[in-house]
Design brief:
Number of domains: 2
Largest sheet: none
Number of helices: 11
Oligomer: single chain
Shape: globular
């Protein structure tokens, strides 16, 4: 998981496609529109069309196909339980229930994989309360460090036999490891906040404004939005 997230984060800044050069605000609005259509689409044809559109966006952004499939497939395990509980004996219902989260996750992968995280969180910080927006901004970066440390911790436990033996011993070691991660996270947050104060933190993070700077690359976003709108008008209400 940490490798997938780190690779997506790297490609968001290193990519050279028109999607990477387009404004974050335009891509965010397009992804939100695709999510709304995927959730509220009444017919299977529209869902399939929007799903194909999200795949085309993800693949033309030059994100590795294996990486896109791995990131987009995370919600499938959780969706399978819901699909099994809602199955009515037809094949349309499970396909419809499967396409909704898969389309949403593909749109999210395309958005995150083509937008650097400062530009992605900048428009959100204008809508959310300041503490919430700044918290999301910092949590996104801290997530990678915490996951990497937890991976090293569990690897050390496995190599030293901490995951073998009686269940009571394994639970005690797991609890100790979790406590270590909590203390490390607290100390890291304190050091980060002290560093921010030393560097002139003024009470707002992610103050960049170029997330809404339009360019020629946004014409591709507008074209994708037009295709989405056309599909909605054409296929809305059709089974």
């Amino acid at each position: 998981m940490i490798g997938t997230l780190a690779q997506i984060d790297y490609l968001a800044s290193a990519g050279r496609t028109p999607w990477h050069r387009a404004s974050a605000l335009g891509k965010l609005l397009l992804a939100l529109a695709m999510l709304i259509v995927a959730v509220f689409a009444p017919g299977l044809r529209l869902l399939l069309a929007v799903h194909a559109l999200t795949w085309s966006l993800a693949l033309t952004s030059r994100l590795p196909g294996r990486l896109v499939a791995a990131a987009a497939g995370y919600p499938l395990l959780f969706s399978a339980l819901f699909i099994a509980s809602q199955w009515d004996g037809t094949w349309q219902t499970p396909v419809r229930l499967l396409l909704r989260p898969l389309t949403a996750s593909l749109a999210a992968v395309w958005l995150v994989g083509t937008t650097p995280y400062p530009d992605l969180f900048a428009p959100l910080s204008r809508v959310l309360p300041r503490s919430a927006g700044d918290g999301l901004f910092l949590t996104y970066r801290a997530l990678f460090a915490l996951l990497a440390r937890s991976e090293r911790l569990w690897r050390a436990l496995r190599l030293r036999g901490g995951l073998t033996g009686p269940a009571r011993r394994r639970l005690a070691l797991a609890g100790g490891g979790l406590g270590t991660l909590v203390v490390h996270g607290f100390e890291r947050s304190q050091r980060l906040y002290s560093t921010m104060l030393l560097r002139g933190h003024s009470g707002r993070i992610c103050g960049c404004r170029h997330y809404a700077e339009w360019s020629r690359a946004d014409l591709w976003v507008a074209l994708a939005a037009a295709v989405l709108a056309g599909l909605g008008v054409w296929l809305w209400g059709k089974p």
